[in-house]
Amino acid sequence: MSFATYHQTASSPQIMNWSLVKHLKKGKFGDVYLVKNAMTGQHQTMKAVPKGKIRDFDKCFYHETSALSCLQDIGGVVNLFYSESRFATHDFYIMEYLDANLDDLRMKNFPMTFRPPTILQLLYEMVNIAEAIHTRGIYHQDMKLSNFMIKFTPGYSQLKLVDFGMAATYYETTHLPSRIFFLNKPYSSPWVSKECAFQQSEEIVTIGMVAVHMALGIVPWYCPDPMRMLYYKTLFVEDPEFFLKPYNTHVDAVVKNFVQTPYGELVDYNAKRQILADAYYKMTACFISSNIRAYTIGNDIRLD
Questions:
Q1: How far apart are the first and last CA of the chain?
Q2: Domain 100-303 class?
Q3: What are the boundaries of each domain within the chain?
Q4: pLDDT digits (tens, 9 = 90+) for 29-87
Q5: Per residue in 176-226, pLDDT tens?
Q6: Which residues pair with 244 in a beta bridge?
Q7: How far apart (Å, rounded) are the C-alpha atoms in residues 56 and 54?
Q8: Do the strands 100-101 and 138-139 form a parallel or antiparallel pair, or are they unpaired?
Q9: Most CB atoms closer than 10 Å: which of 80, 85, 136, 299?
Q10: Could you tell me the pTM of the whole model?
């Protein structure tokens, strides 16, 4: 859906206080644009979701805006500035502009992968973000590299979680039938893939699986056949070292601790952070921090 089609009555690509700069990407539930706020001059991100064509689109808009509204004071979550659902053809919302997601960084720097200390530092931030949203009773349910983005500032950068279209509250995951089919999702835990209720422990398992993607650049349990992928995924969680041994990732022990988090366990986030801090100090002789170092190569951001 083009921006021009979206604004059938407009003589220029502008809606309310925002003017179009460029189309960024087309996602499963809508289009994402870079826009400029006419009041502040700041660049922001607009997500336009088609209305009514598919019921899931309306649900996605509701769940994302509801979750983000509850999480606005959390530094590791993308800021929501405005949402609008009164237009006939689309819902849209305005968020802060972020520079690049981790999967884009991985692909732009292929065949290089994230260095082990960088992986540990990113995992440290992911645990912080998970704890913050879980404390509010919200599960993201779709953590993956493309949903973690970097906000670049000179010297240091900030990791932020985006795309809350699959987010759910603790009540929804434990008392209502799941509205999400997890079997074909590579980073869902084996328990969730088997339609068990989503728990905070499963977000930690997912973070451990995301770490493997960062370290290897591939997902070793992936298979186009969802049932076979579940089988491989189960084998991986039971014995991650068997899968990782040929690659010498240097983060095998951390991955094992995360992916073998018992289903339904009340997560000790401090213990997870301590494991990451100890591994980081062993590698670098430095203390881990929330400051993510970053520098530019041309127009791209690459983590170090």
A1: 37
A2: mainly alpha
A3: 3-96, 100-303
A4: 778 999 999 889 999 999 988 876 556 666 778 888 999 999 999 999 999 999 888 77
A5: 556 567 889 999 999 999 989 999 999 999 999 999 999 999 999 999 999
A6: none
A7: 5
A8: unpaired
A9: 80
A10: 0.89
